Amino acid sequence: MNVIFLDVDGVLNSQQWALKMFAEGVRVYAEDMLDPHALRLLKRLVDESNAKLVVSSSWRGIPESMKALADQLGQYGMKVYDVTPNVGETRGKDITAWFNRHSGKHQYVILDDDSDMDEHADHLVQTTFREGLQAVHVDQALKMFKC
């Protein structure tokens, strides 16, 4: 199974997009809004890799945010497959805990603007909080999936 471990802030939204929207009177962080451009890029990655989305973002612990995420992903024909457990310390430890609960052969990438992936660092496609998910990141992830 192909898996995308998905962060939200700095991947599906960005500082640049939020500032643009704020100038238009929209407070994206208060409303858990996601950048449509980033969602289209994620959709391309999901479609071309046939991957499942596993949320590793801190959003996974906030029911209202998870509902907003699910709703917005759904508008693009995507859905959350699962979330990582929150074992603390690093995102990498959370991902390891997920693998400990899900046996089988997995190919995976991690979309995140942070780098605390521990032994999973070679699977990280690192975005930036400033710009979020870009086409170059999707291309990098597809190469990691060998698509």
What is the compact description of this entry?
By secondary structure, this protein is an alpha/beta fold. It has helices at about 15-25, 35-50, 65-75, 90-100, 135-145; strands at about 1-5, 50-55, 80-85, 105-110, 125.
Quaternary = single chain
Mean residue pLDDT: 96
CATH topology: Rossmann fold
CATH superfamily: HAD superfamily/HAD-like
Instruction: Outline the biggest β-sheet.
Output: 5 strands, parallel
Provide a count of the helices. Answer: 5
Arrangement of strands in the largest sheet: 3-2-1-4-5
Structural class: alpha/beta
Stretches where pLDDT falls below 50 for ≥5 residues?
A: none
- Content of β-strand: 15-25%
Approximate helicity band = 25-40%
* Rg: 14 Å
- Extended strand count: 5
The separation of the N and C termini measures: 13 Å
Q: From the 3D coordinates, which CATH architecture would you assign?
A: 3-Layer(aba) Sandwich
- CATH class identity: Alpha Beta
Q: Describe the global form.
A: globular
Secondary-structure element pattern, one letter each:
EHHEHEHEEH
The domain count comes to 1
